[in-house]
Write a structure and sequence with these properties.
By secondary structure, the protein is mostly helical. It has a single domain, classed as 434 Repressor (Amino-terminal Domain), CATH 1.10.260. Helices cover 70% and strands 0% of the residues. It has six helices and no strands. The radius of gyration is 14 Å and the shape is globular.
Length: 101
């Protein structure tokens, strides 16, 4: 099976989300500390990510995506800004499928 998303596409999606993190976080009404706790990172690490001083990992990107998709307002914004496009949705679906016995 071919990979749905290559590393360049993942980096592009990470950039899109990173550029909108402070706006998305504000719409959810969550502090940097609370969001960092949900991600399992320090507040300083999250702050560096939000301020573009540190690159977000793919797993943290997915964790943030799940959080923001669980909120109606931010879920719509994710689609509008292109952070949750159809190719990512397909990638997630393929990763979740179990192989037949």
């Amino acid at each position: 099976m071919s990979r749905v998303l290559d590393n360049a596409r993942k980096e592009q999606l990470i950039d899109i989300l990173t550029n909108e993190l402070s706006v998305l976080r504000a719409k959810v009404g969550i502090s940097q500390q609370d969001l960092a706790n949900r991600m399992g990172v320090s507040r300083q690490t999250y702050g560096a990510i939000e301020n573009k001083g540190q690159r977000i990992t793919w797993s943290n990107f997915l964790a943030l995506l799940l959080l923001f998709r669980s909120n109606d307002e931010t879920a719509k914004q994710l689609e509008w800004i292109g952070a949750y496009p159809p190719d990512l949705e397909q990638h997630i679906k393929l990763k979740g499928k179990k192989k037949p016995d």
